[in-house]
Amino acid sequence: MGIVPVMKPFEGSVFLVSGASSGIGEAAAVALRQRGAAVYGLTSSESTLASARERHPEVRWLRADVTRRSEVDAAVAAVLAEARRLDGLVNTAGIYTFAPLEASGEEMMRRQFEVNVFGTVFLAQAALAALKDSKGTIVNVSSTSAHKAMADQSIYAATKGAVESLTRAWALELARHGVRVNAISPGPTMTPGIAKIPMPKEMFEAAKEQILRTVPLARMGTSEEVAHWIVTLADPSVTWLTGQIIGIDGGLGVA
Ligand SMILES: NC(=O)c1ccc[n+]([C@@H]2O[C@H](COP(=O)([O-])OP(=O)(O)OC[C@H]3O[C@@H](n4cnc5c(N)ncnc54)[C@H](OP(=O)(O)O)[C@@H]3O)[C@@H](O)[C@H]2O)c1
């Protein structure tokens, strides 16, 4: 049996991945690194940064809360001071709190919009000049619930609807600078964040049952299966795709 060559299509490129300390973002950071990119991972707290660094010493770790513009600006400045370029931004940092309309309090609404929408915008703004210089790429992370209505997810869905609107508009705005902007739209994916959703065990099991009934491929996805498409959209060989939202959802989006 011959030796399978390790493909390094991202060799020489520099990526910044938000939400890299857990789940889909962590899998994307690892996959980009394995394919040759220098990867900077962003996380919001010192404690998650320390454990992420221990698991993935090959990733360079930075702390910034994406809802704080000054911290985001400082993190991007640190990347540029060290790496001198930025070829890709992956906006994975996100939170999800599910609740019916009457139980959706102001703090819960504001926090989800701040992390999922403002955080995505702050990072894109901070990275913009460097991405124009490199003719780089942005990959945003939406959710099936942005375009397939689901009860008790209206606020979260609205934040992801915003992410999809940003993606399409930025693709148009940045095309003349050679910057491609796309998004993935994952369906139910088993991640540490999903496992931590505060709900009684029996409700969690019932939700999983519901997923098995409604997802055509009849299971939850894995972080790696989803991250594969982040990496694919960012791949330098993908030159003619921008403004697209790709559903990575076991068929849920069309069911
Ligand atoms: N899992 C799913 O079923 C699913 C489905 C559709 C879409 N998505 C989307 O996919 C993305 C990742 O989800 P996941 O399930 O992998 O989540 P996760 O395991 O909870 O990871 C979330 C990541 O976001 C980071 N983060 C949260 N708030 C932050 C803040 N204020 N500043 C900086 N970083 C912050 C977390 O880092 P620290 O806490 O370390 O700061 C963590 O790395 C999210 O955008 C989510 O909406 C997930």
How is this structure best described in words?
Strands 3-2-1-4-5-6-9 form a seven-stranded parallel sheet, with helices on both faces. A two-stranded parallel ribbon has the order 7-8. The protein has helices at residues 23-34, 46-55, 69-83, 106-134, 154-175, 192-195, 201-214, 223-234; strands spanning 14-18, 38-43, 60-63, 88-91, 137-141, 180-186, 189-190, 221-222, 245-248. The model has no long low-confidence stretch (mean pLDDT 95). The protein is built from eight helices and nine strands. Helix content is 46%, strand content 15%. Strand 2 (38-43), helix 2 and strand 3 form a beta-alpha-beta unit. The longest helix has 29 residues, at 106-134. The chain has one domain (14-247): NAD(P)-binding Rossmann-like Domain (Rossmann fold). It is α/β, with parallel strands linked by helices and 255 residues long. The structure holds NADP nicotinamide-adenine-dinucleotide phosphate. NADP nicotinamide-adenine-dinucleotide phosphate (NAP) binds at residues 18-19, 21-25, 42-45, 48, 65-67, 92-96, 115, 119, 141, 143, 186, 188-189, 191-194.
